[in-house]
Amino acid sequence: MTSHRTRTFEDLVAEGAAVPTEGWDFSWFEGRATEARPSWGFARSLGDRLAGATAFLDIQTGGGEVLDFALGQGVKTPLLAAATEGWPPNVTKATALLRPRGIVVVAAPEDAPLPFAADTFDLVSSRHPVNPQWAEIARVLQPGGTYFAQHVGPRSVFELVEYFLGPQPEAQSSDRHPDRDRAAAEAAGLEVVDLRAERLRIEFHDIAAVVHFLRKVVWMVPGFTVAEYEPRLRA
To answer: Which tens digit of pLDDT belongs to each residue from 3-41?
Structure first.
């Protein structure tokens, strides 16, 4: 006979703490968490734009998964194609995934100048950049080029953040507001031709998913460890 022991808090926390966090693949959360997706379908829309690009840059590509999906729709890789990433484990993963598609992955810190000449790319993209470097984006774009991105909105997952950290300053919660992005982009010389925002629902179905999420998305609760936050996790 097979034993079906009920999984304890300790079992679930240990599982969430053991799952590797490299890359930007969230498939482990299937059945354990859900996140509504924006109506515009970023990866598919990126694929449409890639089809007409000749020189392309993806900033903060993570493990390259989103870009790989966009190109996997039968889209031909542009003649010049590059991606940047700042976290070494992701650089390794993105290189393995994107090199076969003819994309060069460059290790570059998130807050450093982009290691490319001015007026190089007719399409620059980024999904969830930590802190968009607007002047650098404008510098590497060719005249008439396009920046296409999906940024994190204000107070993203803030119910979870404030559960662990307590109430956060209002300034922090508004850092990623679309109005601020618009103003910063225009200040860098870009013309905003389309801007959309949606508020979407995330649900975590067990404590393992919470632990893995906070280990993977490290800026939510900086310095998160199971040991330090064990009382809050148990609650």
So the answer is: 456 899 999 999 999 999 887 778 899 999 999 999 999
> For residues 66 and 46, is the Cβ–Cβ distance under 8 A?
yes
The pair of structure tokens assigned to 48 is 């449409």
CATH classification of the domain holding 136: 3.40.50.150
pLDDT, tens only, 144-176: 999 999 998 888 899 999 999 999 886 555 578
**Which CA distances in Å does 6 have to 11, 46, 122, 191?**
9, 44, 55, 56
- 48 & 61 share domain: yes
Q: Count Cβ atoms within 10 A of the Cβ of residue 151 and give its class: 0-12 exposed, 13-18 middle, 19 or more buried.
A: middle
Q: How far apart are the first and last CA of the chain?
A: 34
Q: Which two tokens stand for residue 1?
A: 């006979």
Same domain, 146 and 31: no
Q: Of 125, 82, 73, whose CA–CA distance to 102 is shortest?
A: 82
pLDDT at 172: 55
The set of residues, in sequence order, having a beta carbon less than 8 Å from that of 48 and lying 6+ positions away, is: none
Put simply, whether the predicted model's pTM sits higher than 0.90 gets the answer no
Instruction: Provide the residue range defining the domain that includes 214.
Output: 9-36+201-235
Cα-Cα-Cα-Cα dihedral sign, residues 113, 137, 188, 171: negative
Give the tokens for residue 165: 């950290």
CA distances from 108 to 101, 114, 141, 145, 191 (A): 20, 7, 18, 22, 26
Residue with tokens 């310095």: 223
